[in-house]
Amino acid sequence: MISIKFSSPHNGANWLLTNTYARSTSLGKRDFLAWFKNIQMADDVHWLVLGDFNLCRSLDDSNKPGGNHHEIMYLFSDAISALGLVDLPLKGRRFTWSNKHLSPLLERLE
């Protein structure tokens, strides 16, 4: 996780931009989410979090059934809620990732 503080030249507002990359293993995801949920960020900080979380928030975020992601999805949504974050809507397409097979697995990874 890398964070950068910056100021808007338009209105002088200060922002904290955080880029993150979460592990792709189940244990790594649980460890990351436990850590992420407990970040202490002041309510008056304008915080933008982006990156590759390697996580889905809903079963609808995949074009194929399978995998037992229910617990991880709950933990991810719980962390987003605990941090007071807002998940920005995806515009123009339904999925953000493909395994690029002939019959691809497509997912909307956060």
Describe the structure.
It is a single chain. The longest helix has 14 residues, at 70-83. The strands form 2 sheets. Strands 1-2-3 form a 3-stranded mixed sheet, with no helix packed on it. Strands 4-5 form a two-stranded antiparallel sheet. It has helices spanning 26-37, 70-83, and strands at residues 2-7, 14-21, 47-52, 97-98, 106-107. The model has no long low-confidence stretch (mean pLDDT 87). The protein is globular, with a radius of gyration of 16 Å. The protein contains 2 helices and 5 strands. By secondary structure, the chain is α+β, with helices and mostly antiparallel strands.
Architecture blueprint of SSEs:
Elements: E1 2-7, E2 14-21, H1 26-37, E3 47-52, H2 70-83, E4 97-98, E5 106-107
Helix pairs in contact: 1-2
Brief digest:
The chain is α+β, with helices and mostly antiparallel strands. The protein has helices at residues 26-37, 70-83, and strands spanning 2-7, 14-21, 47-52, 97-98, 106-107.
